[in-house]
What we know:
The structure is a single chain. By secondary structure, this protein is an alpha+beta fold. It has three domains: 3-142, no CATH class; 171-266, SH3 type barrels (Roll), CATH 2.30.30.60; 271-416, no CATH class. Helix content is 60%, strand content 11%. The protein contains 17 helices and eight strands. The chain has helices spanning 3-19, 24-64, 68-76, 84-97, 105-137, 146-169, 174-183, 185-191, 193-207, 252-255, 262-266, 288-294, 298-317, 325-328, 334-348, 383-400, 414-425, and strands at 216-219, 224-231, 235-240, 245-249, 259-260, 270-278, 359-362, 370-378. The protein is rod-shaped and about 140 Å long. The N and C termini lie far apart (121 Å).
Amino acid sequence: MTEKETNFAKFLEDWLLSIFDINQNQAQLLKMAILIVVTGLVAILLWKIAQLVINKFIRRVERRTSAQWSNVLLQGAFAKLPLIIPAIYVTGALPLIFSDYPTWIPTIKTLTAVYITLVVIRIISSTISASNVYYSTSTRYKDRPIASFTQLAKIVVWVIGVIFMLSILIDSNPLALFGALGAVSAVILLIFKDTLLGFIASIQLTINDMVRIGDWVSVPKYGADGDVIGIYLTTIKVSNWDKTISTVPTYSFVSDSFKNWRGMQESGGRRIKRSINFKISSVRFCDDEMLARYAKIELIREYIEKRTVEITTYNSERNVNTEMSIVNGRRMTNIGIFRVYILNVLKKNPNINHEMTHMVRQLEPSETGVPLEIYCFSRIKTWIEYEGIQSDIFDHIMATAKYFDLEIFENPSSSDLKRLAAVEKR
Length: 426
């Protein structure tokens, strides 16, 4: 304490003794209480002044720059700077306040140092949060798991900060505490197991570009199917199509299987791969009447004419008897002509990407009939429009199958069984 502070403390104590009927100990306590109140009021005043100065500085910078990084940093980290000013002032005023109780000063200084350390930690944490906001909204980094790294950085800052605060409280070297952590590393690893696994997974996800914010992912194990809305240190949030939110452990995206639809979204189309079954008994060779009827359909007229010439030439060159041409020669089938018709329908569909694979193929027959599969890619990849395009194609297939003398397979319903029973009773 300086000579001026000593003189002021002595003057205040003598003044209290002169106006109050108290002894010296009581005067010292009253003097300390007055100094505490005055110091507190001055500290609050300094805090308010610092806030006004910082806010004025922030507004001036915001007017001069449009950079989001500057705005977030100023409103976050810089806004907490005024909290240090009162602590610094109180630390300097301690010798005056507790001049008669010097043994209290080290304890108050220790608590003040802890408070300043805590404020510094919050400032650094706010700076990290500002970087998270900036990079998350940046067009270059918005689909990266920035939150995972910023969360880890915050954990590291708080761990180091807590160690420093403990070292201040117990008056020990921080390095000694860091050394003590090595002895309990197994316990630390157990406590932070999920955090460490999440951090490792975040690095792998970033390096291998496995998941980005905005990707459509399917994780059947956790019932997640939707867009990734957040990638954090230990979890990844998925907004499902039913508007629910699934929280999936980050490490599961490395250890377990999942499907990322980004490739489809970035490609030229979304795949349509669906089949419809026809009764095998309705598949037959085409006679002249059937061919004449099918030839009236514009999309397959040219095909039928061309194939008729090819088949006639083939059979005539081999002297195939007309009556036995079904067995010995070549004939067209209704399902074969129908496949060509559907393929031409796809080629005429402007919603199908014709630069990608598109075909109509026959799959292996089974007890449910012979499947005819449509394999193509829709130009439009958004869910609602995609389902509409797919439905239109199969609406057309189901409606036109009867014109090719084909029957769609379906299991008999109760009404079918009733009609069958009625026929048998007759």
